[in-house]
Specification:
disordered N terminus, two-stranded antiparallel sheet, 2% strand, mainly alpha, globular, 194 residues
């Protein structure tokens, strides 16, 4: 069977930004899709700030940050060599932390109030800044350091974990942690004395 030719851009170079192959979507493409979805939701929140939409955004952000922190970020950190690139990793983690601080504050403000609107705008700005830094700095470095095959592999892991989390895996993770801690805290798994 003849080899398939890669598409080329106007420069004549191979199109390395191709997002799919026979084996699926790569990690960067999947994460960018998440970014786009959340950006659109945040734009809607600015114009129609409802608590329901905020809950959807919170869910999306929690799943997205969890798959990044569990799978993509460790793979990125492992693949990079310079201290400057390592700084990108730590900054991304801190930006996730700041978003985690802002979300509960928005939820505690009254829907439609000036405070709600202002906090929603700050959340939008934080998320957009974070996504842009990942897309302009982290992702190109990851693409170079990891290569296409590794990114496709990570894409499959991210997709699988995302599905788990969206189908109640976050509750399962908390449940597993509780079961592990119960014996240490004198919970249900203690031996019964007859």
């Amino acid at each position: 069977m003849p080899a398939r030719r890669r598409s080329t851009g106007s420069s004549g170079r191979s199109n390395s930004r191709r997002t799919t192959s026979r084996s699926g979507t790569d990690a960067i493409s999947l994460l960018k899709q998440d970014h786009q979805k959340v950006r659109q939701m945040l734009k809607r929140l600015e114009s129609d700030g409802s608590e329901d939409l905020l809950s959807e955004i919170e869910n999306e952000l929690k799943v997205h940050t969890q798959i990044e922190e569990e799978i993509f970020y460790p793979a990125f950190k492992e693949s990079i060599r310079s201290q400057k690139d390592e700084h990108i990793y730590f900054e991304a983690l801190e930006e996730h932390h700041v978003v985690d601080l802002v979300l509960p504050e928005i939820k505690n403000s009254s829907e439609g109030s000036d405070e709600f609107d202002a906090k929603a705008k700050v959340l939008k700005d934080l998320v957009e800044h974070h996504a842009q830094e990942e897309e302009k700095q982290m992702f190109p470095k990851a693409r170079t350091a990891m290569g296409a095959a590794r990114l496709r592999e990570l894409g499959e892991e991210l997709k699988e974990r995302k599905m788990e989390l969206m189908n109640g895996g976050m509750k399962e993770s908390a449940g597993r942690l509780g079961k592990m801690l119960r014996p240490m805290m004198g919970g249900r798994n203690r031996r019964r004395v007859a």
